[in-house]
Amino acid sequence: MIAYIDSSVLLRIVLGQPNRLAEWPRVTRGVSSALLVTECLRTLDRLRVRAELSAQAIAIRREAVHRLAAEIDLMAVDELVLGRAAQPLPVPLGTLDAIHLASALAFRESEIPDLVLTTHDQALGLAGRASGLTVIGC
């Protein structure tokens, strides 16, 4: 399965949280927005600042983000993606989720017609379905 990997999916794996994506072992190729790494690292930094994880635990998880992201094809957040994310969407989304949706749609249109969107975010999942994507994870 070729899957668009949303930050929520990668973070649940890296943080060892419950209800991780059951289909993760079936992903043969992962794609995402270059935004993926920034979002994940910012989340880890918030956990560090709130003292929810030790410095050692944060370092291990940061390394995991970089290792997993190195195996994922990342799309640049360029003017085309930003322009598409700025357009009206079928479901209200924040900026970061709109960029993820625009990136997933660009991957689907340019090279991966059977792309599956993986996310644990309900709004992004609904927007993906409304845009014609197959969605798993929520």
For the report, how would you describe the main beta sheet?
5 strands, parallel
CATH class: Alpha Beta
Inertia-based shape: globular
Report the span from N to C terminus. 17 Å
Taken together, the total number of domains comes to 1
Q: What spatial order of strands do you see in the largest sheet?
A: 3-2-1-4-5
Corresponding CATH superfamily: 5'-nuclease
Kindly name the structural category.
alpha/beta
CATH architecture: 3-Layer(aba) Sandwich
Radius of gyration: 15 Å
**What is the helical fraction, as a range of percent?**
40-55%
User: How many β strands by DSSP?
Assistant: 5
Topology-level CATH name: Rossmann fold
Give me the number of helical elements: 6
Mean pLDDT: 95
The H-and-E topology, N to C, reads as EHEHHEHHEHE
Q: Detail the poorly predicted runs.
A: none
Residues in β-strands, percent: 5-15%
Strand-helix topology:
Elements: E1 2-5, H1 7-15, E2 29-33, H2 35-49, H3 55-69, E3 72-75, H4 79-86, H5 95-110, E4 116-118, H6 122-130, E5 134-136
Parallel strand pairs: 1-2, 1-4, 2-3, 4-5
Features:
single chain, 138 residues, alpha/beta, Rossmann fold, 5-stranded parallel β-sheet, 6 helices, 5 strands, globular
